[in-house]
Amino acid sequence: MPSSRPRRRSASPEPGIVGVARFGEGAAAAAFSPADGRWWRGLTPTGGYGRAFGSCGVWKGLGYTLGPLLGGVLVTVGGYRLLFTTLAALARS
Fold it and tell me: Could you give the maximum distance between any two Cα atoms of the chain, in Å?
């Protein structure tokens, strides 16, 4: 007998799986952070470390704050399909 529930059309069968994937992404980003600092240090002249690390910190902070907020808005407005379509379009540009 067919189910009367509508079929889900998301990339993941459960939102919890997306949460676990985001947790793994955060752990990977945290592991990358020391390499990121070394990269900035190698590119920056000796007297400009403060400005370079400060700028990097500001942009990272904005990304960590605005990324989930904008992602939540996209999921609320159009579901995961809109979120992933937007991310794919940004990746192509």
Answer: 72
